[in-house]
Amino acid sequence: MRARCLVVPKDRVEDVRRVLLDRGVLLKHLTMRREGDRLYIPVSLPVDLGLPIEERDFEEGYVPVRSYKDIIEVPAEVRRSLPRSFDVVGDIAVVRIPEELRTQREAIGRAILGWNRRLRVAAEDRGVKGERRIRQLEVIAGEPRTKTVHVEHGLRYRVDLAEAYFSPRLASERKRIADFTHEGEVVADPFAGVGPYAILIAKQRRPREVHASDANHAAVELLRANVAANRAERVTVREGDARTVLREIGLVDRVILDLPHSALEFLPDALGAIGTRGTVHLYRILEQAEEAAVMEIIQSVARAADFRVTDLQCRHVRAYSPTQHHTAFDVTVARASLRAAPGTSPTASHRSRTREIPTRGRRSGRTVRQSAPRGRRNRRSMRRT
To answer: What is the model's pTM?
Structure first.
């Protein structure tokens, strides 16, 4: 390849190279030439360093590719708008593309697949819509499919991104909830999707039973396949509306309400499934200023259901937008009108380690469940006394 170059004495090569890198004019993909005691360093633009400038032929060398941005070819005026990140589910890259880059979406998809050879599909994410949280996808490069197998915490999940919701960004949160769960508990996951919460809990924590259900038929079919593939015998799969399932399954120790845009509407139903004591994990998409109001609503709903909130924790799971967070509320409750002996599970045939933290006496710092692992710093707590 023919290019402009600086003619540099060998004792000045390193200094000149640093200057060219700082100015962004060094052609790193071309190999410098050496003739005698001089080196010819290729540049994209003339640079006045008091050195001769010539044109020479250069060989293309190897340059490490650290990002798809290193190989994509798009107009300079839109390069700054290129997506900084994307999700990877199995061998599918899922990327959100700004409106000003719509005409470049195929180029973005091809560059992502060229950068990572293990990826076989690039799909544009147009957001999650509808009651069943179906992701609106369009394949922009690679194989024309939305089905894949995703590995998380050593477990394998069959996923169809166009038919059932799945987010790899919640892997750490799923592990956190699994770590909260005690041996012998009965757990309800009424928005189970393809099963990443339910199966992880069943495989790692030895619960008595995990009731996993969803109203989306396609999600339930994938859930059944994943339960079988991972040999999660403690998971009982159901298809149906969350409220109906929570009424039918009997008393439980723990409920996971992973439906961020409307989970609060199902809190009364979740509390109705709790026996003498238990925990509800509820998720919302919120501005930080809204968190205190939601905590008050949770307290009010619990009182209406004849529960005392013995521990209420709030933490940010991930950023959802520049001003909003995907927020988790860990709500531990006990029946206000019925005090059971500490450690007694609401299910008569087993004992759970779920314990109520005493409400009397002073405690220093934040209040947490005695068995819970330490959370992240952006955590708020509220105790009812």
So the answer is: 0.73
